[in-house]
Each structure stands twice: as C-alpha cells, then as structure tokens.
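Researcher: We plan to redesign the surface later, but first we want a full-length starting point. Tokens attached.
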C-alpha cells in the first residue's frame, strides 16, 4: 500500500498547477497503489494532456487498466506509449510495452 503522507504531499504539490511531470506521475502512482483507479486515470490523463512525451506513464497506466478489467482503454494507452518509444528509439521501453500489449486478453468473440 502507498503512504498516506506521501499522497497528501503530492496532492498539495499538484494543486497549484505548477508541478512538474514527475510530481503528477508520482501522484498517479500513489492513487494506483491505494487502488484508486479512477483518480489515477484522471491524473494520468492530466499528465498526458500537459506532457504527452512523458513516456513512463503509458506503461503504468496501461497495466493498471488491464488489472482493472479495462482492456480496451489499456490497449489505447499501451499502443500510444509504444509509438512514443519507437519515435525516441527506446528499445527497452518498446519491448516492455509490446509485452504488456500481448498480455491483454482478447475481446470476447461475437459468435
């Protein structure tokens, strides 16, 4: 479980809007650690809107969404992260994102 003091500190830091991407990322991870998926997702979305090149968020948000049973949204995050990693030539990140995408269960068949 996450640390409540750290969560409160990160919430305070990000309230003013002047926080850097790392603070927003940390806040999203804290929400995730407390099982607050919707708060984490909202925070990841804010980070994506303000700093779409902050690549670590794509893997963390995608895997969180897989665990939360939201495979369609997870795939969107992971595939976007994969594109970003390829743009930057980050082969390690590409591999991690590809592996995460492969772990997403297929959609139920319509047959």
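Model: Full-length starting sequence:
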């Amino acid at each position: 479980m996450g640390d409540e003091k750290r969560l409160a500190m990160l919430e305070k830091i990000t309230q003013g809007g002047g926080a850097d991407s790392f603070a927003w990322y940390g806040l999203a991870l804290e929400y995730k650690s407390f099982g607050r998926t919707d708060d984490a997702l909202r925070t990841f979305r804010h980070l994506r809107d303000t700093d779409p090149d902050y690549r670590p968020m794509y893997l963390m948000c995608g895997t969180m969404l897989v665990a939360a049973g939201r495979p369609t949204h997870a795939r969107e995050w992971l595939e976007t992260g994969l594109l970003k990693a390829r743009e930057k030539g980050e082969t390690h990140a590409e591999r991690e994102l590809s592996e995460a995408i492969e772990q997403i269960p297929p959609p139920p068949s319509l047959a």
